[in-house]
Amino acid sequence: MLTIGELASYAGVTVRAVRHYHAKGLLPEPARDHSGYRRYDAAAVVELIRIRTLAGAGVPLARVRELLRADEAEFARAVADIDRRLKDEIRARRRHRARIARLTSGDALVLPPEVVAFLDRLRALGVDERIVRAERDGWIPLVAHAPERVPEWLARKREQLDDPEFADFHRSLGQALDRPEDDPRLPELADRLAAYVTRLADERGEGYVDDSTLERPLVQVMDNLAYDTLPVARRLTELLGERGWTGWTRLRRTAPPRRTAP
Alpha carbon of 226 to those of 137, 194, 222, 234, 245: distances in Å? Predict the structure, then answer.
């Protein structure tokens, strides 16, 4: 007959674990001897090893109790089911590890590869990292809200960056980030942006620069993200308002388009 310490030692667990299994009803408590100590037989060692093995494999203790009482066929089915669950957990943990590994790449954690490639293109064009960060932060709620529209938005963004005038505006904006709100060069920058947007609207249509499908709360979130990262954007928005356009994420014409004489 074995003491609780000897039982724990032979089964490879702690005395505390043995007592825990007693409390959970997994391992029956033996009768006490005349001195009041628990005494275990060899069958208890085998039973405790079975409990330890199942618990160590990740089987919930409530399920361990069920398996200990199952017949051979039921036990085999249950083990197969546990094996499938463990395989699913392994696959999930591998996905989690892959996502954690992507933390080192920053943008790739929450954005699809094509958006990350677009951000890298901005960097390659010499765009200030603060503008890239504001662009990234704007993409995050867009991708979460309507991932199916990412290809459409990206195609439009790529078209704009293919235009040297717009790419140059991004670089000029980077140079203006640290300027005070009363800097006389900001109105000049607003003139350039207003002229560019007006040309796009006249050539491509209002819908090309004003995506009316974006809900107002989402637009406000994206605007605020931009304003927080690029305070100068708020001043440029005011200046654009004086030039017939309102907004930042969604640019809308407030003044009627100029008509050329026939």
Answer: 8, 18, 6, 8, 17
Q: Structure tokens of 108?
A: 């790739």
Residue type, 13: V
Are residue 14 and residue 86 in the same domain, yes or no? yes
Distance CA 171, CA 201 (A): 22
- The answer as to whether 65 is a domain residue is yes
Same domain, 87 and 130: no
Close Cβ partners of 227 (under 8 Å, ≥ 6 residues apart): 233, 234, 248
* Residue at 175 is within a domain: yes
Residues 6+ apart with CB under 8 A from 116: 105, 107, 108
Residue 47 lies in a domain: yes
Predicted pLDDT at 82 = 80
Q: Is the pLDDT of residue 66 over 50?
A: yes
6-31: pLDDT as tens digits: 999 988 899 999 999 999 888 888 88
Q: Pick the last residue of a domain from 81, 101, 121.
A: 101
CA atoms within 13 A on the CB side of 256: 3
Quick one: tokens of 125? Answer: 């064009």
pLDDT at residue 153 is higher than 70: yes
Tokens of 144: 């979460």
pLDDT tens-digit series, residues 164-194: 888 888 888 888 888 888 888 899 999 999 9
Find tokens 């039973």 and name the residue. Answer: 47
Q: In whole angstroms, what is the distance from residue 223 CA to residue 247 CA?
A: 8
